[in-house]
Amino acid sequence: MADVTKGIMKFYREVKAEMKKVTWPTREQVTQYTTLILVLIASMTLIFWLADSLFVFLLRKILGV
């Protein structure tokens, strides 16, 4: 049981050491990336909506519905 406890403690020490090595993004970078992602999502949503509307329109014209 002591080996398991030592192993777990070693694991968490190593995790802590690795987390200190991480280069975290600045608040400004996070804001910029988040804004970019939201703009891309909105753009893609609009593109898919327009394409879907066009296909529905064309199918209705072709099928005479």
Task: List the topology elements.
Elements: H1 2-21, H2 27-63
Describe this structure in words.
The chain has 2 helices and no strands. With 65 residues, it is an all-alpha fold. The protein has a domain at 24-65. The protein is elongated, with a radius of gyration of 26 Å. The chain starts with a helix and ends with a helix.
Category from helices, strands and their pairing: mainly alpha
- Mean of the pLDDT scores? 95
Q: What's the tally of helices? A: 2
Number of DSSP E strands: 0
Q: Per DSSP, what share of the residues sits in E-state strands of 2 or more residues?
A: under 5%
What is the global morphology? elongated
> Distance between the terminal alpha carbons, to the nearest Å?
74 Å
- H/E series, N to C? HH
Major sheet details: none
Uncertain regions: pLDDT < 50 for 5+ in a row? none
**What radius of gyration results from the CA coordinates?**
26 Å
Percent of residues in helices:
over 70%
In brief:
Helices cover 88% and strands 0% of the residues.
Which descriptors apply to this entry?
single chain, 65 residues, mainly alpha, 2 helices, Translocase_SecE/Sec61-g, membrane, Protein translocase subunit SecE
